[in-house]
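Shipment paperwork, digital attachment
Item: protein structure file
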Amino acid sequence: MHTLVKYVLRFILGLLTLFGLLLLTIWVQQVAPEQQPPEFTPYQFADTLAHRHYDLDSLKAIIGSNKGLPPGFEVAAAIAYSAYPQLREVTIDMVMTDYGPPMMADIEIWTLFGPRNKRKYIVKLNDQRDTHFDEILLRSLPFDAQVGILAHELGHVAYYHNLNIFQFAKWGLRYLWEDDFQVAHERTTDLMPVYHGLGSQIYQYAYYVRKDPSCIAFYERGKDFMDKYYMTDVALKAAIRDYHQKQGQ
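Attachment content:
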């Protein structure tokens, strides 16, 4: 009996040691919340993309065969994908759900434990009826705003894909527990469409969810949250102007 207790204690001590080493490895990771411009010159999309003809097969050829397109929003999603050439070889799906926030970029957790080129990301798009979010769900948005917010979500994917598994864990913990970290991350993710040539589209999204008559009541209910964690249309307009001036455009 005494020997059994010793083995059990050694086993528990070993688990605690491994857990402590795991926490230490995560703790020492360097993870900045801010998004950064890509290291290439992006394609500059037109200020207005609506009411144009798009060949979906041509767009699919540009974005690759490993991209899922949400039913009913295929063209908007394909345009957003095309703004991120660095994600061409990355497997990403966009799926309609009946739960959760309006839009959310996620990763299939089990793929974090394999090679980075085998990861799979999922952009979840809430399409539930009669919810608190009805006015700002993808189906309620104008075409350009759809492209803009999908490009925002792909900005999250671009950020995640640069992290190793320990950095991803550190990011998740800081995002959940540090309000300033979350603010910095979300507000600079709003700049990712700007960095990828879709500044007008993310601006149109920010404007629509704050100024369109159908959204005013929703915005008034949630303005403190929205304006804290996400850039306003006014702030985005200024950021777009400053970015283009820096780029000499």
